[in-house]
Design brief:
six-stranded mixed beta sheet; 4 helices; alpha+beta; binds coenzyme A; Aminopeptidase; single chain
Length: 146
């Protein structure tokens, strides 16, 4: 995927957060340690440094959400990251319910909170820092609960 295609998908999916530009994606892709895990209608951008992986963004085309693609992308990038990292972390807005639920099902647990980190038109939302061990990620299909 080109930086332009990544930016277009990101703009379509991120309706609340500021979308990232093609130049921002180009810089990230050129940076050492950054990896792109792509599917036809989505992608995960992540980096791995000193035994720790970080999910930078996960994006699924709105027209293809809710069909398991986000789950498959999570499984793929976490498996790739496990080759060089023991754990992974990410940051997500607490009011991003879809992403929070997906991450929890993929083995991530909240380890820190940044109060009022994301600006909202009616206030602010906390950022959650979530962490998961790699190598033994649970299969989201096995997760119990609603
Ligand atoms: C978050 C995102 C990547 C999920 O992708 P997806 O392809 O829809 O995810 P899946 O179909 O694999 O759904 C996996 C789980 O996520 C959760 N989920 C997905 N959509 C949801 C929604 N609208 N509300 C609540 N939970 C939801 C559910 O737990 C779901 O499992 P279930 O369908 O068995 O209940 C997608 O919604 C997206 O791109 N959002 C905009 C960008 C974004 O917020 N990215 C993450 C922050 S970096």
């Amino acid at each position: 995927m080109t930086p332009e295609a990544l930016a277009e998908l990101h703009r379509a999916a991120f309706t609340v957060e500021r979308p990232w530009s093609a130049d921002e994606f180009r810089d990230l892709l050129e940076a050492r340690h950054t990896h792109l895990t792509c599917a036809m209608h989505g992608f995960a951008l992540w980096r791995s440094v000193a035994g720790e992986a970080e999910l930078l963004t996960l994006t699924v085309d709105p027209q293809h959400q809710g069909r398991g693609l986000g789950t498959r992308l999570m499984q793929r990038w976490m498996a790739q990251a496990a080759r060089g990292a023991d754990s992974a972390f990410l940051e997500v807005a607490q009011d991003n319910l879809a992403a929070c639920a997906l991450y929890a099902r993929c083995g991530f647990a909240t380890v820190a909170r940044r109060p009022k980190y994301y600006a909202r038109h009616d206030g602010a939302a906390d950022a959650l820092v979530m962490r998961a061990p790699l190598g033994a990620a649970p299969d989201p299909a096995d997760a119990a609960g609603p």
